[in-house]
Amino acid sequence: MNEISVLQLILDASPAVKFVLLILFFASIVSWVMIVQRWLVLSSATEGVRSFEQRFWSGMDLTQLYKEGSQMQKEEIQVVGLENLFRAGFKEFMRLRQQGSVDKEAIMEGAQRAMRVAYSREEEKLEKHLAFLATVGSVTPYIGLFGTVIGIMNSFLGLATQGQATLQVVAPGIAEALFATAMGLFAAIPAVVAYNRYSSTVNSITSSYITFSDEFSSILHRQIHTT
Amino acid sequence: MNNTFNNLVIYNGYPLSVVVAILFHIFVLSVLLYLQSNGRTDVLNLVQPSVITALFIDENPQVRNEQNRELQRLERTEQERLNREQQQQQQIDAVREKEEADAAAQQRAEEAERERQQALLVEREELQRLQEAQARLEREQESLENQRREREVVDAERARQEEANNRARQAEEAQAAALQAARTESQLVQSATGLIQQIVQENWSRPPSARNGMRAILQIRMLPTGELVEATITQSSGDPAFDRSAENAVYRAAPFTELQQLPISIFNTNFRSLSLIFEPEDLLN
Predict the structure, then answer these.
(1) Domain with A151 in it
(2) A36 and B25: CB-CB below 8 Å?
(3) Does residue A4 sit within a domain?
(4) What pLDDT shows up at residue A2?
(5) CA B261 to CA B267: how far, in whole Å?
(6) Which of A14, A175, B37, B56 has the fewest CB atoms within 10 Å of its CB?
(7) Residues of B in contact with A48 (CB under 8 A)
(8) ipTM higher than the 0.90 cut
(9) How many structural domains comprise chain A?
């Protein structure tokens, strides 16, 4: 009786508490999947922004840059982030120009619209799963608390049937109940930390997208008005 | 650099994330279990000070009973040993007597023979053959007799051993039964004593003048129905209020109806009179 392992505690828990623990464990696993996956996506996006801006401002011809991107797509390498924005805007711009549209403002507007669409798509990609992390971070402590309350309730019910109130009767039930809270916090803390960090990263990336699309449209504007 | 990241994001990085997440959880769980199994939390020794302890007076009849029983057992084994020795002695005596008788008979036979020989000395030559035949017969008879005697001795020995074995087995069985009875009895006595202590303790409200180290001993006498006949203070604590509170506690706790369930013999030996020691050990001052 002296040695109570955590495993034993979990196995001896009441069904309700077990169920809660199971939910929390899966929430924890899924949230960690999201955390790692988001980390990969976001760091690749930051890296993509940096490398594309380097290429873009290296004075390379825009047509050349566009062709490089097409080449990459042919090789089945996914084009991400900023490059998508650039390609959408540039493609629309060239198409409208080739169609012989005379209205310069209409061409600019078309290009900007295409970039806006690409931007919202990219933003959606970046913000995927962040809502899930936020939910896990805010809800799992409550689920854990629920398990704890149920567990303590059970142990007090057991106490009521017992004639004599000893620590040995109540203690395992309360320990098992507290384990549910611990599990909830274990799932919630990384999720909250990751959510905060990732949402700030997403903000910085999207703001760099917006800045880039403004800069690019000003370049296009210059091009359309000089010719 | 860009390529590796692109490759990771081809499937949006899901397979890798799943593997990493599961590995992380396995790691955390194993660390938790390892720490739990290693860092044996020191067991808290929450020993509640016993405020009241019951003592059986008359030098604790239970112990005395056990001593008596032990003494009786010793006496019985001693008696058995003596009996066995006596029997052995008797057997030895019987054998010896038989041998003596045989020897006497033989002697007598020889004497008779000699007389007869003397009487028949004249006709010795004629009777020599007859004599020889007779002697042969006698010798045969003697050897037969010897064999019979030996067989008897062996039989007697075997019977004696069997008897001894039986007796030892019976003694063992009796001892085990007695032990069993004593154990259940002591259990009953202990639980009943604990119950009385608890009830009295619940009913005891200590006066403010109670101090650690005070000690009052009350002797209570009870009926088999659990009713209290009387409670007398055999050792005062020196504080009348304290003594009175102890007395009140006993009167308030009575009757101890739980004692009705005890077998009457156990009650008679253990609970007719009981000493309760009142000691407030758990006070802070």
Answers:
(1) 13-225
(2) no
(3) no
(4) 45
(5) 10
(6) B37
(7) 2, 5
(8) no
(9) 1
